[in-house]
Each structure stands twice: as structure tokens, then as C-alpha cells.
Design goal:
Layout: E1 4-8, H1 13-29, E2 34-40, E3 55-59, H2 65-82, E4 87-90, H3 95-103, E5 108-112, E6 125-127, H4 135-140, H5 143-146, H6 161-171, E7 178-181, H7 194-208, E8 211-214, H8 218-232, E9 236-238, H9 245-254, E10 257-261, H10 264-272, E11 276-280, H11 285-288, E12 297-299, H12 318-321, H13 325-336
Parallel strand pairs: 1-2, 1-4, 2-3, 4-5, 5-6, 7-8, 7-10, 8-9, 10-11, 11-12
Amino acid sequence: MFKNILIIKPSSLGDVIHGIPVLAKLRATYPDARISWLVGTAAAPLIESNPNLNRVFYFGRRPGGLVRSLRVHLALLNELRAAAFDCVIDLQGLLRSAFLAWATRAPRRIGFLEAREKASVFYTDKVSWNGLQHAVDQCLSVGQVLGFDTANPAFALNVPAGAQRSVERILSPLPRPYIVLSPGTRWASKCWPAANFADAAGRLCKRVGGTYFVTGTKDEADATAAAIVDAVGAQAVNLVGRTSLTETVALISKADMLVTPDSGPMHMADALGTPLVAVFGPTDSEHTGPYFQRKRVIRAEGACDKVPCRARNCSNPKCMSSISGETVADRVVAVLEGRA
């Protein structure tokens, strides 16, 4: 039915991973179609090597002021129009992404009826979804129009060979278990306090040994990383700001455990089948938690009657601080020992 399809899902890391099962379903349903993805430059490495894609279009803010930015975006619009898509799927559901879908001039533009910012006015086909569904199931609901079922979603995070080799060189001399600690998040309210994270890491180091890799970007994770490294000591490997996105995926794919708040690496681990324990406060784990490992979420219970409030910032984030390092360490040990 469709021969030239564009997926729009620019960001964030977790959101892009949520959309990958749609790509797999599209390729199975339309094996001969040309399928493209419009993605933000930061998240692009997650999909660039995906064999189900024919082309990647890049969306992102560029330095150089307003005039340069407008030129870049105009050039992108011209590229999208020149591609002559017959179907565009907006999985982001925001005014900006819906406008881009409309601007392609594709005859069929599929999006969510409940899209925010009244974005649905730009769609020709509007899909309704149950607001209680997981975000992955929300994305897959476009199958109502595209003719595929939502069962057995497949996540393919392809890691370039160079990233695999780079990570293997780091891991080879170090003792297992390999435990990745990823403290960074995009929302200040989702951060687990550095003292709690460090306490959990110190307890784990004493109980299970192994090697502790602290990952993330410097702007998100630097301060917490220092506390964790101090608590773990010689068994810590501080990789904050030192690995590419694909190297982080490769590291998580080889890890025995990931410990993190609600974050992009959490979705990476879940997609890769790496065991995880995730700490949740202001966000709803039933909607944006790990898709397969939902029972490995530790939620703040009783600390605040507004949880999950979905607030990006909070002057008194009692929910996250109420989850102790001991609680998380106990859960990690249980998962590693096969008891959870």
C-alpha cells in the first residue's frame, strides 16, 4: 500500500527507542517500501545502523544564530518535500513534529488524536490510544491504520563493530559482575540524590564485588559520579563524558546489571535484555518505565501524595530522596541472584 514512508520521532533517547518496534513492524508489513526516519542529532546513533532503514534525516538546533538556524530548517523542509513521501507517521505528537509532517505534503499523515498542543489538526489519519498504555504500545497503535498487529514488539539496537571493540578493550581485564551506574537524567526532578546513589554503590561493592562503571554526560552526571566513585573506590571506572552513545549501548549490552533513575540508558538496557533496577519518583513507570522489566522498578511510595506528578522541576523532591540506597542494593542483589 505504502511505498515511501517517513517516521518522525526526533527525541529523546527513550522516546526514540519506544519507536523502534514500529520500524520493525513497518519493514515486515511493507518489505519493499523505502523507509526513512527524522531524528534529532543527539539520538541519531541509536538508529543510524538499523538495517530496516533506508535513510535518516537529521533535525537539531545548530549554532550560528537565528538566520543560520532558519536556513538549516528551510533546507530540511526542502529535503523532506523532495523525498515525496506517500505516508508520514508522527510518533512524537507535538505541534512541531506535526507541522513537519504536514510540511512534507505527504497525502497520508498519521498521528495521535490525543496529541498535545492541538497537533492533530495536521493529520489526515488520527489514531486514538488508551492513555494508560505504555509509550511503546502507544507508538504501536498506529498499526490500526498501517495494517500491522501490536504483538511481540522487537527492539533492535545495532552497535557498530568499532564501539563493540572499544568496550571490549575496557572490560577484558576487569572482574565481573559488570554493574553500570547511570545517574544522569534530563529532568532535575528525576535525579536520585548523589548520597543515596553512592550509598547503594558502596553497599553493592561490599556484597557482590565486581566492577562499577559510572556513565553519562558531564552536564547531567558529573557531581553524582564523583560521589559514587568515592564510595566504590578502586573498583569504580568513571566513564562520564568519555564514551560515545554507541559505546554506551555496547557497554550496557555486555553488563550484568544497570542501576539508574528514569533515563535513556534504562530503555537501552530493557531493549537489550540487560537486567536493570530503576528508581522512579515523579514519572509514571506504567507509561514510561521499562517495557519488559516493569517489576524491577522501585517507586517512591507515600513520600508525596502527588506522585507521579510529572513535574520537571521540584523545590522539594521528597519522592526520590525517600528511596534509600539499602533498598536499591537489596533489589539489585536479588536480581543478580535470580530471586527477583
